[in-house]
């Protein structure tokens, strides 16, 4: 007998009788990954890309004319505004303002005009020749001009707006026709 056999016999005598254990259940496997909505992710990515292209297409360049009219307003009234035939009752100059300040100034200015029943106002945004890089596009754009365009289109009290005639600022300013106070939503 070898030393290994002696050691095995010695171990068995020390331990005593044994019985075989049942096979243990296998250890739990790693959890399966949560399902992902891959189609929704692709749709969202496609929508973001489409938004970027749409935003790029709708941004005004430095020399572009801004123009907007609500359907309820006759086209002839927009033509009068375009020619500068409607008297301007108040004016806001945004030269030197950054985007956040300009947005706050426009909102406060229009609220003030509303309180004082101004029917037509002028907002001077500048031509944007020294604008910055526009979001998503990386192109130099007239930032304040595009901000004013977006803000005015969203307001319920704005009936129409158009870039001013050359004598009143041209494409560096916009004439805004406001709804009469009694017709404005509260």
UniProtKB/TrEMBL annotation:
Pfam families: Smr (PF01713). Residues 92-179 form the Smr domain. It comes from the Bacteria. PROSITE patterns: SMR. InterPro entries: Smr_dom (IPR002625), Smr_dom_sf (IPR036063). GO terms for molecular function: DNA endonuclease activity. Residues 1-45 are annotated as: Disordered. PANTHER family: DNA ENDONUCLEASE SMRA-RELATED. This is Smr/MutS family protein. It comes from Agrilutibacter terrestris.
